[in-house]
Amino acid sequence: xxxxxxxxxxxxxxxxxxxxxxxxxxxxxxxxxxxxxxxxxxxxxxxxxxxxxxxxxxxxxxxxxxxxxxxxxxxxxxxxxxxxxxxxxxxxxxxxxxxxxxxxxxxxxxxxxxxxxxxxxxxxxxxxxxxxxxxxxxxxxxxxxxxxxxxxxxxxxxxxxxxxxxxxxxxxxxxxxxxxxxxxxxxxxxxxxxxxxxxxxxxxxxxxxxxxxxxxxxxxxxxxxxxxxxxxxxxxxxxxxxxxxxxxxxxxxxxxxxxxxxxxxxx
Length: 267
Hints:
The protein is mainly alpha-helical and 267 residues long. The chain folds into two domains: 42-135, no CATH class; 142-266, no CATH class. It has ten helices and no strands. It is elongated. The chain crosses the membrane at residues 40-63, 98-129, 150-168, 174-191, 219-240.
């Protein structure tokens, strides 16, 4: 008789939720240990420098054209004009002096951040996988196909979707507390959709990848949500692209190992 499947796919909803939460907590704990390794500390520099250089270039190339365009657009926003006139009328300050630069920064800085995350996903994640794979997942063989092409394509479409979604939903930031909610949502989307693929693409076959992404979709999103909340703390920006990669690598490879053990038992 075939033993019951150990994975939470056949477990009760409560048990599945408990197993999923335990897997997420385990991934964060293991990633914290892995992050302290000198190789991973050194890997932090690449996405951070890319994001920093990207921010400098974006500000240098687009700050003046963007602020000029925003000023022209803001002059047609009646609500902003009325509020600005009221503030000036009571002897305070012009909101446009602060609103336009803040809005421009809200557009340009996340673009540099998503570039750093994309660089981490495509170029740093292989280093992460080699690091954790050799130490903790040596028995998980590499069966992925077209890993680099798939990773690059995934990074491109996630980056484009993030940038478009971020800009298109900026008007909702004027409605409290949508600025915080939308920021958390879009970064959770970026972390989840980008990192989960790169965590398993080298090791999982196309069929295994499909099963893992379907079965552990909630867990991947929970990790993205936690990383998005950490992203609200500016000091975390330095290590978060690599640390998030480590969390997703541990979670994805552990899930892949359980999947293969499950199939071995069934066989």
